[in-house]
Design a protein that fits this description.
Layout (H helix, E strand, L loop, with lengths): L1 H14 L4 H35 L1 E2 H6 L7 E4 L10 E5 L5 E4 L5 E4 L1 H5 L7 E7 L4 H12 L5 E2 L10 E2 L1 H13 L18 H5 L4 E8 L1
Helix pairs in contact: 1-2, 5-6
């Protein structure tokens, strides 16, 4: 971004040399670019550095004692097609997740983590409601074979046509009545349950953050 700004401003200055009005515009753009780098880009860099300091190596995730119903979330990245991805821990300790090539996979945690690229992050959540995770995991075992197609469908009641975050949402909604989205559209049983919306749910607590 900064190189683009410098290049653009240099070209403007060359073309508009001697024209005060346009010079002022070039100065304005230069200042705006500097402020953008200071207030936006530097903040993003600091935020990324801070996360890296807080995150644990992904090997530590493999050592965690995960419980049925725990959610493993990977934020937007190249390996998740910039949409994010999530799976839910089943009664057998495997990660159940709806996937375009699935439609549902039941992976060991070790194998699940190999699906992601170096530099990806993982956030592990657990329900704050007692026994909700256990009931969600039981529902997953009873219903995952009903998923027939990977589809970004708005019908929140449909199990047959599903995607990763909607499947996790259903596991909690259909068993404990826990709404991990908490938006008015869920009352109509319509909408898209994006992974980052579940990430923000007050019904979940963060167990840990990790990087690969």
């Amino acid at each position: 971004m900064s190189k683009m700004f410098r290049s653009f401003i240099s070209s403007v200055l060359r073309v508009t040399k001697g024209k005060k009005r346009i010079k002022y515009a070039a100065i304005y753009l230069a200042v705006a670019g500097a402020l953008h780098r200071l207030l936006v880009e530097s903040r993003r860099e600091r935020s990324a550095a801070k996360r890296l300091q807080q995150d644990l190596p992904v090997a530590e995730l493999g050592q965690m004692k995960l419980e049925p119903g725990d959610i493993v979330y990977t934020p937007s990245s190249e390996s998740t097609y910039y949409a994010g991805h999530m799976g839910i821990i089943g009664l057998d300790g495997k990660v159940y997740h709806v996937h375009p090539y699935g439609p549902v996979f039941a992976d060991s945690l070790e194998w699940y983590l190999t699906r992601f690229y170096e530099g990806d992050r993982f956030i592990v959540f657990r329900s704050r409601l007692n026994q909700a995770g256990q009931r969600a995991a039981e529902w997953v075992h009873e219903h995952y074979k009903q998923v027939k197609f990977y589809r970004l469908q708005t019908n929140l009641r449909s199990i047959e046509r599903n995607y990763c975050s909607k499947f996790v949402y259903q596991a909690y909604q259909f068993t404990s009545g826990l709404d991990l989205w908490s938006r008015r559209f869920t009352r109509l049983n319509q909408g898209y349950i994006y992974p980052f919306r579940i990430e923000r749910s007050p019904a979940l607590e963060v167990l840990g953050t990790f990087y690969k």
